[in-house]
Fold this sequence. Notes:
The chain is α/β, with parallel strands linked by helices.
Amino acid sequence: MFEDDGLQARRLRAAPPSPRGLAPLDRFAASHGFGRSWPPIELSRASPASVVSMDASIREYRPADQTDVLDLSLRAWGPIFASMENVLGREIYTRLHGHDWRAYQSNSVKDVLADPAIHVWVGENISGDVVGFAAAKIVDTDRRLGEIVMVAVDPSASGRGLGTALTQHATEWLRAQGMQTAMIETGGDAGHAAGRRTYEKAAYTLMPIARYFKAL
């Protein structure tokens, strides 16, 4: 789950990745015993796109980054949760995410950052501020399947390619681990439109999936 839209030429000092999620609806499904309903998204093996037009760098996540990552994730996901509420209606939306989506999403991000099976990187601007992050994990070694579980970019840094660069960085890490397929999950609503554009720019193939909810 993500938000940012990337463009143009890359000027990125990408550091080697290291060890560190679920999108909101997936986290709810897992906690209630539902199986994953979205299948893998096939990754093209075309050469990575040149996508960054801002002075930025990608490095490994450090525990000291937690507050910055949590803060930027809430700024990035605000419009997404508003979109989900609009689609689902207040009743179902509240049952899934509680009365305060910020608390729900903060816990989701904290879980990702603390999980030793998940690798996390952050994007820094030229002032050294953390303005984005991405997280990935190995899902199935037999099928050589990996997943990018979260990508987010601060609205102040959106539209400059950092989201696509973070996606490519995480993708290349999965490839280096021997994975042959990578997947990313995101929503089909208007709030996730920028994320879908970013993943398509990173050469991911969309597999349309329908997920229905009913209040009981």
